[in-house]
Every structure is written in structure tokens, then in C-alpha cells.
Design goal:
Blueprint: H1 2-9, H2 21-34, H3 42-47, H4 50-55, H5 66-74
Amino acid sequence: MGELLQRQFGSLRKSRKGLGVVELFKQLFCWFADGTSFHLTHFDELAGDPGYAALLETPVSKMASSHGVKLFFGAFTFV
């Protein structure tokens, strides 16, 4: 599934800095499935939770921030 996401949405990533597309989608899918909070600022709270990072099998340093998620959503154009 990672290859499919990378192929379809990899062009949204403008630079090598930040998280990869597959990692962002993984965290977004888990965030939607969790349903605790649908505020983007909740990503900042989750980024500081080592238990949640371990659940996602992601290092704490690779957790998405609300700013990174906003930039990712902003890369989508619906024209």
C-alpha cells in the first residue's frame, strides 16, 4: 500500500524535508480512526506522546505536527 500512496501522492511533497507521504498518511488514517479529536492541533499533543508513537511504530522524532499536516492538506488542489 505504501508504494501506491507514494506513486499517487508523492508529487505533493515539494522538498525532502519533513515527513514522507506514506508516514503522513499512516498517521492521518490512525488519527481519523481514533476519533478522539478532529482538531489539527491534536497532532501536537500526539507528537509528545511516546506511547502513541510506539503504537504507530514510529519514532517520536517522526511524529507529525499540526503545522506539517496543514502544509500537507494545503498541497491538495481541487481545481
